[in-house]
Amino acid sequence: MANYYTDIPELKYHLNNPMMERICELKERNYRDKEEFDYAPQDYADAMDSFDKVLEITGEITGEIIAPNAEGVDEEGPHCANGRVEYASGTKQNLDAMVKAGLNGMTMPRRFGGLNFPITPYTMCAEIVAAADAGFGNIWSLQDCIETLYEFGNEDQHSRFIPRICAGETMSMDLTEPDAGSDLQSVMLKATFDEKENCWLLNGVKRFITNGDADLHLVLARSEEGTKDGRGLSMFIYDKRQGGVDVRRIENKLGIHGSPTCELVYKNAKAELCGDRKLGLIKYVMALMNGARLGIAAQSVGLSQAAYNEGLAYAKERKQFGKAIIEFPAVYDMLSIMKAKLDAGRALLYQTSRYVDIYKALEDIARERKLTLEERQEQKKYAKLADSFTPLAKGMNSEYANQNAYDCIQIHGGSGFMLEYACQRIYRDARITSIYEGTTQLQTVAAIRYVTNGSYLATIREFETIPCSPEMEPLKARLVEMANKFEACMNKVKEAQNQELLDFVARRLMEMAADCIMAHLLIQDATKAPGLFAKSAVVYLNYAEAEVEKHCSFINSFNADELTSYRQ
Question: Which of 273, 434, 495, 510 could form a disulfide with 398 if both were Cys (CB 3.0 to 4.6 A apart)?
């Protein structure tokens, strides 16, 4: 069977980015664990070899077990009986294989049974798994909720809960309610402290909870009596072993069938506070969601890869008018753009994950000792970059996953509409990526301040100073003009001083920024590895240039007075 890591050389290229040396140095605290744990790396080369081997194991399990199970899991799905969830038989096999391989709690410290991996190789594992079965990817990758518990929980909670996740138990984040979707400050699940039991009791309903019958839950609940906004919300840890939560139903969904999306009923469920009261939404959920959004970006890239693989394979095999359809311009145009979006989106994903790695590692070090001035400046720089790039990575990759899945079916023609082909499952699974963990419209809300404060433009101008190969110079010159158009549009909208206008064109401005950033990243990649990325750099630059021109034309010709025509 195929290995979902070694068969994709672009993954190893992104793993071996020069920034990884600094990431490993910080994450490993100059490799101090080698004295205590025999599996801890001795140095940078040893750490990278460890990542490579674990990724190869993940790719092997994905190819030999998860991928063959995907269609059966999609058809069977999970079941609900007596308030509990039972996974599809293929899902159980998948989980068993991943647990036996030690692929849980990957980013957690070794003292808790984790691998102490940075976010970047873990994100690659999430992409690999999602390429085979996005629904199972949800169940397995929700282990990264433990990052929030590690960051904000106390030492006692660390010692009790983190080893369980490293041993293979599952997690969920229980945020959404029937009347609180994107507007999480409206959450009303009630948390009351019971003096007799010396614990918090949770009562209410949660809806659309991914993997809702997990072993450990992070729950957003209203702890402050009489409040109605985000300042009255706290984060709680619910342990399934305590009881008090039943699954009312599993949602009947369009896609990701293997992942149970549950409605949960809390009835005096015992829970404990995670962190401080009143910071549940303001601080902890924001951290939790940023991690989740990076995870959905990885899932989206995996789905884009799957769509491209299916489309390419079918185009090579299918013959019409005496030749394979891949030889027709209309088909190879679609495939080339699919590959360019895949490579551009993946470049953005791993640039983002590396930013996250550096700031998270420095943040963790700050709990042990005071950071130096240089380290504080480094932490501040990468925290800002991570925060600004995360909505781009999630927003653009989820849209590209949907577009690539659409084109994959189009390449298949009528066959793509038949359930016998995997492309229909990929298409259904991809649709949720631009909705959950914050819709693309909400990613735009998160990103727009980095448009208006000039952060994206500053990054783009910094990228312009990075040398590229002679072959890429003509592309880079065109890219400078694209950035100039983005800057002009941004200034035009800002000068209007019309908030409604800014909100209306925000997505266009965000996409212009993202197009420029991804084109730069691809040019950098094509300079270092032309065999892997030169074609995609050319195709994506052509595509992105047209997109920027389209948005620029709209903004320049748009009159704010026309806004009334768009209101329904």
Answer: 434
119-132 and 329-365 are packed helices; what angle lies between their axes, rounded to 10 degrees?
140
Nearest to 315 by CA among 344, 338, 341: 338
Q: In this structure, are residues 436 and 253 in contact, taking their beta carbons and an 8 Å threshold?
A: no
**Residues 352-362: what's their mean pLDDT?**
97
Taking the C-alpha atoms of residue 318 and residue 34, their distance in angstroms, rounded to an integer, is 54
Cα(254)–Cα(266) distance, integer angstroms? 26
Query: Where does residue 319 rank: exposed (0-12), middle (13-18), buried (19+ CB within 10 A)?
Result: exposed
Whether 560 shows a pLDDT value over 90: the answer reads no
What percent of the chain lies above the pLDDT cut of 90? Answer: 96
State the pLDDT confidence band at 567, using cuts at 50, 70 and 90: confident
Bridge partners of 271, per DSSP, are 200, 238
Query: d(Cα 499, Cα 568) in Å, to the nearest integer?
Result: 19
Does pTM top 0.90 for this prediction?
yes
Contact indicator for 437, 394 with CB cutoff of 8 Å: yes
Q: Give residue 323's region: left, alpha or beta (phi > 0; psi -120 to 50).
A: beta
Secondary structure letter of residue 472 according to DSSP: G
256 in Cβ contact with 138 (< 8 Å): yes
* Region for 257 from its dihedrals, namely left if φ exceeds 0, alpha if ψ lies in -120 to 50, beta otherwise: alpha
Hey, is 249 helix, strand or coil? strand
The C-alpha atoms of residue 193 and residue 197 are separated, in whole angstroms, by: 9
- Residues 192-222: pLDDT tens digits? 999 999 999 999 999 999 999 999 999 999 9
CB atoms within 10 A of CB 372: 9
Which amino acid, one-letter code, is at 151?
E
Find where tokens 């100039």 sit: 484
- Find residue 80's DSSP bridge partners: 85
Q: Which domains does the chain have, with CATH numbers?
A: 9-166+282-434 (1.20.140.10), 171-278 (2.40.110.10), 444-562 (1.20.120.470)
User: Which amino acid appears at position 494 of this protein?
Assistant: K
| SS3 category, 261 | strand
pLDDT in tens, 282-329: 999 989 989 999 999 999 999 999 999 999 999 999 999 999 999 999
CB 492 within 8 A of CB 554: no
Q: Which region among 105-109, 135-139, 283-287, 299-303 has the lowest average model confidence (pLDDT)?
A: 283-287
Question: In angstroms, how far is the first alpha carbon of the chain from the final one?
Answer: 53
Q: Alpha-carbon distance 250 to 234, whole Å?
A: 26
In 3D, which of 75, 91, 438 has the Cα closest to residue 289? 438
Dihedral sign, Cα of residue 502, residue 503, residue 505, residue 510: positive
The residue count of the chain comes to 568
Q: Which two tokens stand for residue 26?
A: 């910080």
Give dist(CA 102, CA 94) in Å, integer. Answer: 13
